[in-house]
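User: Structure with flavin-adenine dinucleotide, tokens only please.
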Amino acid sequence: MFDVAIIGAGVAGSVAAIALAPTHSVVLIDKQAEPPQRIGECLPPAARRIFRRLDLLEAFNQQSHLPSQGMQSYWGSEHAQIVDHIRNPDGFGWHLDRQKFELFLRESAHQRGVECIWPAKLVSVQDTDEYWDITTDSAHRIQAKFLIDAGGRQSPFARLRGIQREQTDKLIACWAILSDNTQHRMGMLSATKTGWWYSAPLPDNKRVIAFQTDSDQVDSEVKKDPGVLIRLALTCPAMTRLFASLDDTSISDSIHCGVSAANSTRLTQVAGHRWAALGDAALSFDPLSSQGMFNAMASAMQLVDLMQTSKDVSREYKHQIENIWQRYLIHKNTFYRQENRWKDSPFWKRRHQ
Ligand SMILES: Cc1cc2nc3c(=O)[nH]c(=O)nc-3n(C[C@H](O)[C@H](O)[C@H](O)COP(=O)(O)OP(=O)(O)OC[C@H]3O[C@@H](n4cnc5c(N)ncnc54)[C@H](O)[C@@H]3O)c2cc1C
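Assistant:
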């Protein structure tokens, strides 16, 4: 019998496991044998505080992720605005090698005594009134007193319990990873009539490009073919300038591409008796915020603190998550309303309502 079972060894689940390991027996379960190639690589400077609390900062620094100097954005105007981290008290952020980062977190959990089980997909869970009886597709039977759903947007435990997800929009991200030998070291954001582009340098001379739009506002070929995605990028002046600095092989050697859900969603119930949901399982943010991983880490720390100090974890945690969601919605809506150049296009109209 474990004190805590965590479903999902992404950023949220692994950080929660590392934070709980000194005081609880923990089992961490993931359906993937190793972290997949995922989009989402900007980690804000404040993450340094969490690494320090977990005694992970030194090991993290040795991973040679790229320092992030800031973001150049074309939002609300064709003129570039630069938000840099120079005056940030926490220092620079990072552009991560996401797979390497997740592997680092999984290995750190393992080294701190967490029982790690993968690949193993949660398929059923029974509440015996005293503990959770968990079954996976690899025939593991696991018992735990407390259960954490860190299974990302799929929120697998909450779904098995019949808890609904609310969504505020239908944003998707069509993305590709290219090779990039330039010295262009800033992230870039640029609004267009049907959505917005994002690009950032990655370690090992790579670069991600992503187009955020509504699923009904984009041709299906853009979702499948990086060549079509790049041709669409070339209709955006800021992206054209970026591509002008890349050589031809960067474009022909595009390494990977995919389509990801990028809409804002939340569980209608984020905690209950002897369980809680974390990270994207609880709240998933629009990538405009660049805060998904940080929120995953911070909500893991909040939950672990409450598990160690609170007499009513569920009530206090729900209250904290509700506050985060309300603040997030205000910021997101304010930011989208700053772009007024295409008021009549469906993408922007939906966000200005
Ligand atoms: C286009 C885009 C760009 C983004 N850019 C950024 C960015 O720049 N910066 C940032 O901070 N965030 C960004 N994000 C968000 C960020 O990627 C997520 O917020 C983050 O991945 C959430 O981490 P998580 O651990 O909660 O969930 P996930 O990363 O989704 O991890 C969930 C884990 O649960 C496992 N799992 C799922 N179901 C089961 C099951 N049934 N049984 C066992 N295991 C299961 C999965 O295999 C996975 O490992 C972006 C998101 C998108 C869509």
